[in-house]
User: Fold these one by one.
Assistant:
Number 1:
Amino acid sequence: MASAPPTKRQKSSKDVPYELLYWPGIPGRGEHIRLALEEGGATYTDTAVIQGGINSVLAQIDPKSLGDEHNPPTCAPPILKHGDLVINQTPNILLYLGPKLSLVPSIEEDEDGIYHVNQLALTALDGLSNEPHDCHHPIASGLYYEDQKVEAKRKSEDYTKNRLPKFLGFFERVLKGEASKGGEWLYGGRLTYADLVLWQCVDGLKWMFPNAMAKLEKSGEYDGIWAHYERVKGRERIKAYLGSERRQKYGMGIYRHYPELDEEA
Amino acid sequence: MASAPPTKRQKSSKDVPYELLYWPGIPGRGEHIRLALEEGGATYTDTAVIQGGINSVLAQIDPKSLGDEHNPPTCAPPILKHGDLVINQTPNILLYLGPKLSLVPSIEEDEDGIYHVNQLALTALDGLSNEPHDCHHPIASGLYYEDQKVEAKRKSEDYTKNRLPKFLGFFERVLKGEASKGGEWLYGGRLTYADLVLWQCVDGLKWMFPNAMAKLEKSGEYDGIWAHYERVKGRERIKAYLGSERRQKYGMGIYRHYPELDEEA
């Protein structure tokens, strides 16, 4: 895309910092975008740490908004503004940032690599982010947890017993496969944004289901995943970010720690 | 991508038909891929209509598979093979096919158009395909519907009352917004694969929740959606496809018609 011809939208409108619009107070789905921006060394603003930033989020998802001349309305955050471009949907924002922040193989190196990275990110988000969210909200995202506790317990039991091992096992195989080129990273022998997505998911799950995750760790069946987790965490920029005030604590977001939903110790 | 330089993978390996790998017997998530291939006039094979085709699907998602030198393993169908490329995840396959089948604006016309199309497809799949699936399987995809009927009824009530109107209202606004360039199609004044995704979702929902959808139609609040539905259905190639034997009937897939989950007539 770097070599794309001039277009109707001025290139110069992109020589500006990225703007992340996300709810303050929780890492949430916005965290996948933050990790990409941090690892990519990007200059960005974040409504989560701007006084009154929540108003920008609310304006953008106003149920009367029709978007503008260039951009359709956006349904939910995270939202990325870059110049006059406004996009949302976590995997879509990552897809946009990937080539710009060198978090995917270049087209010259690997013409279709971005589709593999995108599919791995989508799979992690499906099984290790959306499903954990539904564990505490299986009936309705608009109801309180307390109004669906019984169903949440049933869903969480199935999740930790069947779904979580299935998805961890899948990514263990991705690391073991030849296309990982060595087993350190998910694809192509180098860090991509799919690695950052998997890391954030595993980190959230360790917080949400500490007992279930500890048992899976003890099983020895997913050793590639835990090594990968430490490898991402040890990246210079990621380490600096995680130690900074920009990294928010888990709370009432995607990953929630309700001890009654976890397995027995 | 058409002007990408030569890569390590031979271009000539792509001068072959697309191969869709999906479960036989239901439209399912594979239908989004079929509609794109049909509207794009592509030559393709489909395991759903090949004797023993299911074995290709099972081999590809074998829980011991490590993928191959080029391709990571795939977690679930739909899967697309194109030459030696193997990818999965519905929105990812559509992203790959979009430029090849002229189902997205070209980079020359609209540098970032593909991100808008991708975000609209992802939003439709989230709210109008994944959530309806969870209406009949809110607790565990591995359990029978009969084992989660009470929870399914509760979730479906919330879905038809709150979530379905929210997402239809969102797409109504997308059509009304300036970026649709006229309100006939979701983005940029021309059909993209996001229109096909929305169409398939609305079609499935009409079958799954006929009463709830009829009420929403009578409300007059979503007239753009119904006109869009007829517009897609009337496309020459789509019309021919829907009248052919290649279009499978709904059954025990994403969209299921359990009258007890629908609203009263």
Number 2:
Amino acid sequence: MTASTQFKLYYWGEIQGRGEFVRLALEDAGAEYVDVARLPKAQGGGSGAVAEFLKKSTAFAPPILVADGLEIAQTAAILEYLGARLGLVPADEASRVFAHQIELTISDFVLEIHDSHHPIAGSLYYEDQKPEALRRAAPFVKERLPKFLGYFERLVARNPSVTLLSSGHSYVDLSMFQVLEGLDYAFPKALARLAPKIPLLCALRERVRARPRIAAYLASPRRIPFNQQGIFRNYPELDVAP
Amino acid sequence: MTASTQFKLYYWGEIQGRGEFVRLALEDAGAEYVDVARLPKAQGGGSGAVAEFLKKSTAFAPPILVADGLEIAQTAAILEYLGARLGLVPADEASRVFAHQIELTISDFVLEIHDSHHPIAGSLYYEDQKPEALRRAAPFVKERLPKFLGYFERLVARNPSVTLLSSGHSYVDLSMFQVLEGLDYAFPKALARLAPKIPLLCALRERVRARPRIAAYLASPRRIPFNQQGIFRNYPELDVAP
């Protein structure tokens, strides 16, 4: 990586979405980056610029990171690439592979969270698949939410450092923080009921929130608020008691 | 990697499932490996042995590969690790990253294929979510199937070698072969209708099938037949005309 390296992130500018996992890593590391969609149109920004870039790209979908002449798509692949460069994962192969597989499991979890409000098709509105969403949300809250969170809690319990990796803070903790923030927005009641069973994840969430660069980012206009177009959506009717 | 390296695959023995993507890479490379679930119980095999191993593991779910003292979960992460070691991807970072992001997009596609018959919950039988599956399959066949296959077709069209990577045959071609085989089992009518639009993927499929070690594997009892418990299931009512 040269001194002139600059990261360019191509992701939609109206939602946190999958791009937020990348933004958090770049922000936590204090990396210099351009969030293309959030630049003014006059400077080549806007979500239209992302759509244009995607047409010429070899990626299936955003987020796409451009770095050192490489174009990298898929959130977990971007974080695997960035992790070692930003000091957000140890350099040894065992640590990198372990971190990556946790991140891929977080990706699986995030997709299940998304599909709880979109079980039929991403091209349909929530309102057009609400009966199916209601039916899907019940086993999600009852079975999948405790299963995933219980798994991550057990990983943290192996370490004294309130981190998913034994080596300390890493990019997977940032992603875990984002998932917990999102669940608190989308499923506040279910998360509150589960909280006593996941004290270490709750501690991890507060530890990450207190990191100076993360705290500054969350307080800045760069952090897009949660909204009803993203992965995490607050539909109270889906936040059911198990 | 030492001369004593042996790969151990932990995956369910009754289905191809996600483990099949790993099996195809090991078979194509002629690698020495143990498919634990398919060993006799007296030799420590069976799916019970996989369940026992999972309890002690740091993985969320199978497939899990044990190699060189590492335990690696998540299909795409396993293939990224194996690819370079088995000569199934060029060693340079750009090629590895590009191959990995294609594999991750294949993983996303595979999950959508699976969820076409299980849109509500993995813990319910198909028969208990059939109305929702019927509703989900229609936009899947009409929108998602052509979108994903069209994307992969465009990637192959960039290369003269009927491969997804410009450098030639790689593990992502093996995974693409498996997806096409599975789609032909699960959605034969939809795939036949799309075939004229994806001639290069059809050629890739036949190219992979003709590789001597793959041909030998497909003809062997090691290849588990497609069945109604796996990712790809033949429910004719879901194979609808768009």
